[in-house]
Write a structure and sequence with these properties.
By secondary structure, the protein is mainly beta. The chain contains four helices and 17 strands. The longest helix has 15 residues, at 105-119.
Length: 308
Amino acid sequence: MNNIYYAPEGFMEEKKESLSAAILERAINTKQILEARAVMCDSDHNLIVDLGDIRGIIPREEAAIGIREGQVSDIAVLSRAGKQICFRVDDLERQGTKTVAKLSRLSAQKDALEYMLENYRCGDVINAKVTHLEPFGAFVDIGCGIIGLINIENISVSRISHPKDRFYVGQNIKVVIKEIDRIQKRFSLSHKELLGTWQENADLFSIGQTVCGTVRSVEEYGIFIELTPNLAGLAENKNDAIIGQKATVYIKNIIPEKMKIKLSIIDNFECNEQIKEPRYFIKEGHIDVFTYSPPCCGKLNQTIFQPV
């Protein structure tokens, strides 16, 4: 990948210093992309941006890709109020005794999208920020407010009932590009390949340990207990186990040849535990092929990232 990097909005630590007139003037000449907080959206749906001593304004039609053409609704603008946003500085104007900066988020987004479509490849590992959660998946900002989707089945190997079991809005995460639709200009993403293989996760545990997991599925033949997002074991059925509960389990056996972990439930209980930050085995770079299953296992579980 090229050295150019378009960060998700608000991904980097928020800067506290004001953006001075000198910084803004320089940004006009260099076309630098800046970031600041949109403090409000006015009655005409223009975004007002906090630049310190200077008032910044992003006209409605410059606030997001697709607004001018009517391809997206104004919620794409209204929802930015109170949040960090990226922009370019088009001009500085004197209005009475004050200086007003005319800004464009659209310009920053167009450049970011053009770069991503030209340079990103399936298998690239990039930063992202969770923006919205739906039952079918998680929407994330992959740079300058450009949105990609992680379908629920690509969030982790261990099954979950809703993306909120794994993510929260505003969370900084890593993702890998699964598909790029250069016609529709859309990015499909995955997350599970970054959370380690079966063996890498199994190596975190030993036979004879008693650990805590999460009930993910209750079947007639047993209960699946998640030990990590990419590793689950099977325990004998217990009628009072409920999906989402925590369970204290004893590890009876670890069988790489069958990708199985046999467990015994000692106790299950309710716990309002906060979402844990992901433990990444891959944090950067590029993946051509991800093989989840151990070499000794007869069942091949693999993701191949096809170049496009």
